[in-house]
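Budget justification, computational time. The allocation requested in the original proposal was used primarily to generate C-alpha cells for proteins on the priority list. As evidence of use, we reproduce two of the resulting records. The first is shown immediately below.
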Amino acid sequence: MRNHPAVVLVAVLLSTISLPASLTGASVALPEIGRDLDAGLAGVQWVVNGYNATFASFMLATGALADLLGRRRVFATGVAIFAGSGLAASVATGIVQLDLLRALAGIGAAAAATSASAILAATFTGRARARVFSLFGTTIGVGLAFGPSIAGLLIDAFGWRAVFAGPAVAALVVLALTPLLPESRQPHAGRIDWPGTVTFTAALLLLIFGFVQGPETGWSDPVIVSAFVAALLLLVAFVVVERRRHDPMFDLALLASPRFVGICLAAATIVAVLVPLLVYLPSYLTTVVGMSPGAAGATLILLTAPTLVLPLLTGATARLVPPSAVVVTSVAVVAAGAAWATVLSPGSGAAALAGPLLTIGVGVGLSIGLLDAMAIGSVAPHRAATGAGMINTARLASETVAIAVVGAVLASTTAGRLADPGFTGGLRTVLWSMAALALAAAVVTAALVRRARIQGSPVG
C-alpha cells in the first residue's frame, strides 16, 4: 500500500478536514472558554488569532522546508505538532497556556497544509489532479461546514475541551498513515531563507498583536504604536531581503504576473469575509439571539454547506466557462451576500439569515479548490510547495488580519463584552465594509485578468 494514490488521498484529506474544523470549532467555544477560564475578550480572541497568526506566518517557511527537506517529512512533523498541541489544549488550565498551545498548533497546521498540497500535486497529474483538487476543496468545505455544528454538539455534551481533542485524534490517525506516503523534494536543495522567515513571521505577529490588544490598552498606547511601526519596518525588510536572495521562499517575480496576483487577491478577499463571520457569528447567535452552542453551530451550516457541493461542480463548469470568470463571479457573489447579511437583528433566526448566509456560501464554494489548482499551476513543479505556500499565505494572512480588525471593531462597539448594545450595530458596520471591499476586489480581479489576457499570459 506504500505510495498508493488512495492512501495518499485519504491521509491528505483527513488532515485537511481537521485544520478548518479546529478553527471554526474553537470559534463556537469562545464564550464557554471565557467563562470557564475567567478570561477577557483579548485573551479569548487569541485562542483563534494565535492559531491563525502562526498558521499564516509559518506557511511560507514550512513550504520552503517541504521543498528542501521532503514533503512527507515536513507533513508528518506538522501533523504530529498539531495533534500534540491539540491534546494538550484539551487539558489547559489557563488562558495563557491555551493561547500558547493554539499558536503551536498553528505552526503544525502550516506545515501539514502546505506539504499536503504539494504531495497531491506530486502524486496526481492531468485530469486526475483536477479531480483530486476538487475533492481537496470539498474537504475544506466539509471542515468549515461541520466544524461549528460538531463543535456545538461536543460543547453541549462534553464541554469546550472536546473541541480541541477531536481534531487532535483525527490527526493521530493521519500520523499513522504517513509512513505509507511518497517522499518528494526540490531536486537542487538550497539554503533555508531564515532572514525572510524571521522578518515576515515577526511582522505578521506584531500586526495581529496590535489589532487584538489595541482596543484593550488603547490605540495610542506606546506599545501598540510601536507594534504597528515595527510591523511596517519588518515588512519592508522582508521585501528587501527577498529581492536580494537568489532562491527566495517568496518569489516576488510572480507578483509581476497579473494572473497570479488576481488569484491571490480573490483568495484573500473571500476568506476575509467568510472566516471572521465564522468566528464572531456564533458569539452573536448565543449571546444576543439566545441560541445554544449546538443551534448556533447548526445555523452556520447555512454559510458553509455550499462549499460541500460546489467545488465538485466547479470542475465541470470550468470546462465550459473560463476559470478566471468563475473566480470573479465568486468574489462578486460574496460581496452581495455580505450586504444582504446586514438584515441581522436580535430577533434573527436561521430562517431570516438563510438567504444571505447561503449566498456567501455559494460565492465561497465556487472558488474553493479552483483557486489552489490555478495557483499551483502557475509555478514550476519543483516549487509546488512554495507556490502553494504563497497563495495560502495570502489567504491566511488576510483572514487573520480580518479577524483581528473585526474583533477590534466589535470590541470598540460593545466595550469589550461582545453583547448588545453595540454588537448588532458593530456587525452591520463590519458587513457593509466587507461588501464594499469584496466588490472592489471583484472589479480589480477582473481588471487583472483582462490585463493578463492582453499580455498573452494564461488565465485559466
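The second record produced under the same allocation is shown here.
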Amino acid sequence: MSEPYYRTQAWRRLRAACLKRDPVCTVAGCTRRSVVADHITPRSKGGADSLSNLRGLCIQHHNMRRQGNEPWLKGCDASGKPNDPTHWWNSK
C-alpha cells in the first residue's frame, strides 16, 4: 500500500516552500502566522500540487475554508483587494 500524499517528502518540501514564501496569512488584513499550505484550487477539483496553487493561511482562515466559507474580508473582491478604490491598500 502506498504512502498517503500528505505524508510524502515531496509534500513536506512543497509545504515548507509555501510557508517560507507566505509566513503571514495571505488573507487581506490578517496578520496571523501561516500554518497551513492551502490549495487555492482543491486537489479534489483538479488543483495541482504546485507552489503556484498554494497559499499560506492561518488556522482560523483555513478552518473557515474547510467549512465552505471563503476567507475574504467583508468589502473585498475575490482576490482580497478592497472594493473601495480609495482604500490605502489599493494604492500599493
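A brief technical remark on that second record: The mean pLDDT is 84.
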